[in-house]
Amino acid sequence: MIVARALAATIAIAIIVTGAGCPPLPGKPSEKDRWVAPSQITDFRQLYAQNCAGCHGADGRLGPSRPLNDPLYLAYAGVDVLRHVTANGAQGTGMPGFAQAAGGNLTDEQIALLVQGMSAQWGRHQDFKDVTLPPYHPEAAGDPQRGAAAYQTYCSRCHGAGGEGGPSGGSIIDPNYLTLVSDQSLRTTIVAGRPDLGMPDWRGYVTGRPMSAQEISDVVAWLASQRPARGALYGEEGARIR
Question: What's the CA gap between 40 and 21, in Å, rounded?
Fold first, then answer.
């Protein structure tokens, strides 16, 4: 009996030792490959790739939408605006809200992680500590007539005298473009520029003469005045009027 028990114990130990050196069973995922509930993802790169890269590019640039890998834009918008837009979307644009409260899939903590990650990865806030940035939201209403004059001074060299396009810039009065873009998006583009497209920021249109906050608002007002009336591009049935 004692011999039998000893033999059984030896066999059991041998099985354990042998099994310890065997590779994992086929199909068994490693710890890093285990499924994680979407609400539990806390890695910035994974959150960004799954929710933002499709529009803003894999590394925050070279996507169909504004690059987020832009230190000036990140400093101009600021953390509060970035968090609000990520959570709730941007009205009048194709940017949806990603917060669960807005119909999206992300928790408040995940949105905070995205914003913190963008700032940490791509922000250089120290570069703008001595720069007075124009306000993100206009402090005073713009005037389209003044905006027409400011446009000639700052913008016509690239976009043409009437905004129809010039030697180094496309049309910015195209009705399709103006219908798809919000006033805030126009303002952001004027202030932060589009480095991916070679467009300067508000300081670079005229050498040594940055645009004032009021001139920015006025140009936005002039551009908005070129926007077609609601329904002007489409008939009652939604068909494009050519």
Answer: 33
- Percent of the chain residues past pLDDT 90, beyond the cut: 69
The CB-based long-range contact list for 192-201 (8 Å cut-off, 24+ gap) reads 192/70, 192/72, 192/73, 192/76, 193/72, 194/66, 194/67, 195/67, 195/70, 195/72, 196/61, 196/62, 196/67, 198/168, 199/158, 199/169, 201/72
* Domains parsed from the chain with CATH numbers: 39-128 (1.10.760.10), 144-225 (1.10.760.10)
Instruction: Please name the residues in contact with 215: beta carbons below 8 A apart, sequence gap of 6 or more.
Output: 146, 147, 150, 154
Quote the CA–CA distance of 89 and 127 in Å, as a whole number. 28
Q: What are 5-35's pLDDT values in tens digits? A: 655 555 555 555 455 555 655 666 676 666 6
